[in-house]
Amino acid sequence: MFPQMNRTALHFAVGRNHLSAVDFLLNHKARVDVADKVKHGLMVIHLAAWSGSLEIMLMLVKAGVDQRAKNQDGMNALHFAAQSNSVRIAEYLIQDLHLKDLNQPDEKGRKPFLLAAEKGHVEMIETLISLNLHTSEKDKEGNTALHLAAKHGHSPAVQVLLTQWQEINETNENGETPFLLTVEGGHEECSKVLLAAGSDINIPDKLNVNALQIATRNGHGSLVSFLLRENVHLHQKVEPKESPLHLAVINNQITVVNSLLSAQLDIDILNQQRQQTPLHVAAELGNVEMVETLLKAGCDLKIIDKQGKTALAVASRSNHSLVVDMIIKAERYYTWREDHHETIEDSSTSSTLSFKQDHNLETRHIRTCLWNLAYRQLKANEWQRLARLWNFTDDQIRAIEEQWSGNESFREHGHRALLIWLHGILMMQGNPVKHLYEELGRAGFPELAEKIRQFKSETDSSSKKCTVS
Q1: Do 391 and 328 form a contact (C-beta atoms < 8 A)?
Q2: Which of 91, 190, 325, 332 has the most CB atoms within 10 Å of its CB?
């Protein structure tokens, strides 16, 4: 006995398939009935079945090993043989030793056939079928052999099992079909096998979560596309807590979001608890890329959640200033487009449309000019005068002001408002310098307007500097 490990020398010899060592130990009266206390009460017959050595198994049987011995998990030699694809051992136990009574469930309620399916051992599955030891019984979690093989994506094993199966859409204790389990594991090939065999793509589990939601939540983009191609239902009879689109946003799966939007999933769908759109969720998370995707797709910016807040208000409350500015840009852009009766398809700016921060070299000079204007010229409350002249709404101004960092915050607020204005001018393909000159004059800043007049164009020369100082 190795006291620190509670294993005998025979355990090690059998586990490592050392025939000569096993023979030596058995000839010296090594005990074959000692359980390994480290590995759930493993006995040497279990190790022999697992390792697949028929020669060692014959030696142990000759030495009087308990052929029906179980470990702490209720597993006998046939369980271990099935789990490790030891076909010769399984055939020996059943055909030569006539131990069909080994075909019993373990502590999890799994017979050897279920263990072979879980591991995807096609040869063992076929052997147990030929020995008439196949079963459609369920384990304690309600899983059949088909559930277990599908869960782990064992497509060849699933194909063999399907030849024996009557009810392909049978559910386990969680209400999951084999198809749902294979989708959850991200196994696209196995999903195709089950679908071709007649699996219902739209059966949800007990929590009313369907395959599309599961694939979305787990970020299986390829599977999402596959399910959409197979016409999975986009709308359930009972709406889930979170739609597939919400789940994709929460889990930052932009590729999945684009797939769902391409399939015409309602971009403004509300979740159950908070009555929020996907944009509300993305705004609260401060996810700039996700917000950009949803804004460019044309989501409704006026929808309010259960607390009466728009996505802009949610972003503002969460202090996500980048997202606040993006949403204001989008509100102003789509308002302008509606006023000019343009659609996304009609707009000449649709290919270059972006609501993120502008880092374009072509606009560097005008952006420098606006920075100087905000941080060196405009006084407190003066940027709001410009903002109202430019038709910023009170909600938009409040959203900008909510990100307050001290008495000098008005400079940052003004700079952000100027950049939002610049975005709109560029989207309208206007001349920013010309517009700024005219509108500073209209707002009552003639001296600043005159300085802007000297600023010719942001594209004239990279060496020119803004004259506002």
Answers
A1: no
A2: 190
**Is the distance from CB of 8 to CB of 31 less than 8 angstroms?**
yes
- 346-350 long-range contacts, CB within 8 A, separation 24+: 348/429, 349/427, 349/429
Query: Model pTM?
Result: 0.79
CA–CA separation, 329 and 326 (whole Å): 5
Rounded to the nearest 5 degrees, what angle is found at the Cα of 10, between the Cα atoms of 6 and 13?
115
For the residues of 140-154, what is the DSSP string, one character each? Answer: TTS--HHHHHHHTT-
Residue type, 444: G
Which residue is it, tokens 């309602």? 266
Mean pLDDT of 249-267: 92
| Best CA proximity match to 13, nearest among 41, 55, 68, 70 | 55
The amino acid present at 322, given as its one-letter code, is L
**145 in Cβ contact with 135 (< 8 Å):** yes
**Cross-strand pairs, 2:** 7
Structure tokens at 9: 């020398």
In the chain, where are the structural domains located?
A: 361-453
Rounded Cα distance, 94 and 24, in Å: 28
| 290-328 pLDDT per residue, tens | 999 999 999 999 999 999 999 999 999 999 999 999 999
DSSP state of 302: S
User: Which among 252, 346, 251, 267 is positioned nearest to 301, based on CA atoms?
Assistant: 267
- Environment class of 406 (CB within 10 Å of its CB; exposed 0-12, middle 13-18, buried 19+): exposed
Diameter over CA atoms, the chain: 109
Is 267:299 a contact under the CB 8 Å cutoff? yes
What is the spatial distance between Cα 186 and Cα 221, in angstroms, rounded to a whole number?
A: 9
Q: What is the pLDDT of residues 133-161, one digit of tens each?
A: 999 999 999 999 999 999 999 999 999 99
- Asked: is 361-453 a CATH 1.10.533.10 domain? The reply is yes
3-state SS, residue 36: strand
For residue 404, pLDDT beyond 50: yes
Please count the residues of the chain. 469
Please give the pLDDT value at position 463: 44
- Do the Cβ atoms of 1 and 7 come closer than 8 Å? yes
Distance, in Å, from the CA atom of 469 to the CA atom of 451, rounded to the nearest integer, reads 9
